[in-house]
Amino acid sequence: MGKGFFNVVPEHFMKRKELFARVAEYFKEHNPEPETELTYDSPFQLLIAVMLSAQCTDSRVNMVTPALFEAFPTPDALAAAEPEDVFPFIRSISYPNNKSKHLVNMTRMLMNDFNGQIPATSEGLQKLPGVGRKTANVVASVVYDEPTMPVDTHVFRVANRIGLAKRAKTPRHVEDQLNKHVPETMRHNFHHWLILHGRYICKARRPLCQQCGLTDVCEYYLKTIKPGNQ
């Protein structure tokens, strides 16, 4: 591998380092410039889309946001609305009542405390109502190139299955383990790689292992799927 982040390390770390290197090289070859599949034209729109995507698919979010963004094109427009004004636009999204309230309250704080500007750090974003750590990390990474590692259900599942995370019980535990082994300059791509792999290949109920190029190092496959290990 040469000198760099994935250097030779003490023996008890060797396998983990080699695993991260193998996964990174595979994704760099097959998807060198991964990006979010959410549709947006501004940091404000991205923040809204990510908030709506919680426990909902990106494709569904992309279906409702055009009309929502047309009705409320700026932070001050949404801040002046009431949750019942927002609800009809997102009724097909999961938890539309709560999300309508979160969007309005988030935007009001954005106007009152941040002069309508999206905070540039994950910590600042998490001060906004309805913005959790995952949402904040996504926006900070995509908009401001912050070296964050957002962990959604896909990242959580894929990291644990492959073995990038060991016995991780919470998203924060996965995040901490990934941050330990993924260089800051690679984190933006790495979390998108895991999301997309989980969405299209390493699916929750029926992972498409026959289409995966990581079966030779995937703990889940080697322990439960590979012929002879069943």
Description:
- With 230 residues, this protein is mainly α.
- Helix content is 58%, strand content 0%.
- The protein has 12 helices and no strands.
- The chain has helices at 11-30, 43-52, 58-71, 75-79, 83-90, 96-114, 122-125, 133-144, 153-162, 171-181, 187-200, 219-225.
- α2 (43-52) packs antiparallel against α8 (133-144) and α5 (83-90) crosses α6 (96-114).
Number of distinct helices: 12
Number of strands: 0
Rg on CA atoms, Å:
19 Å
**Average of per-residue pLDDT values:** 91
Proportion of β residues? under 5%
Q: What is the N-to-C order of secondary-structure elements (H for helix, E for strand)? A: HHHHHHHHHHHH
Measure the end-to-end span: 34 Å
Major β-sheet annotation: none
Low-confidence stretches: 1-14
Describe the structure using short key phrases.
disordered N terminus; 12 helices; mainly alpha
